[in-house]
Amino acid sequence: MNFMASKQPENCLLGPESDSQRTLYPYVTGTSVVALKYKDGILMAADLGGSYGSTLRYKNVERMKPIGKHSLLGASGEISDFQEILRYLDDLILYDNMWDDGNSLGPKEVHNYLTRVMYNRRNKFNPLWNSLVLGGVKKGEKYLGTVSMIGVNFEDNHVATGFGNHLARPILRQDWHENLSFEDGVKLLEKCMRVLLYRDRSAINKLQIAKITEEGVTISQPYSLKTYWEFSAFANPAQGAVGTW
Asked: Of 7, 11, 82, 110, which sits 20 to 30 A from 216 (CA to CA)?
């Protein structure tokens, strides 16, 4: 018997996964998303920048999307993986609507689903390179949570991804309160986004603010913040720093 003749190519033994492609490194990415609870619902902010490596290549990348009737999703990280997550969620919402039972998935259920998706992909060593913020309102109950690319997740009264987790959260801890009005909530988000614009090289001065209440989702038109670049620390940021150029 000719064993050589019956031998299959080595890659046939690996199965269909042998040809799968993975996001080995994020290419086009979005930076921070900042969100908070306010008196009537959830407010969320993100800029429209898409960075190709360290180059701010795209200036109109929307990173906040409504999910079903009760939820709003924001994402930082790889844009193509965010689009894949949106496809997953479209299928989830379609399946939920097909039951036609008068019920619909709320923000807590959608957030739990996303935590399982992110953790599952991490365990396959094929993560979705995103940090996600999911907020919503259902039956008068406000919900706000986040999940990282490896499935780490939590709920809070205010959350942020990316650089915002380091620069915006201290501002939110200081200024946020439970009875925040819509106007004060927008001002607080703008304060956070202005700090990120000054300090995060991937941020651009073109942002949107979204709100979700019992009535639904509203996402603002893109706009720019007023900035001031004449601070003395901006004139020579390396002055007095030992070992810098």
From this structure: 82
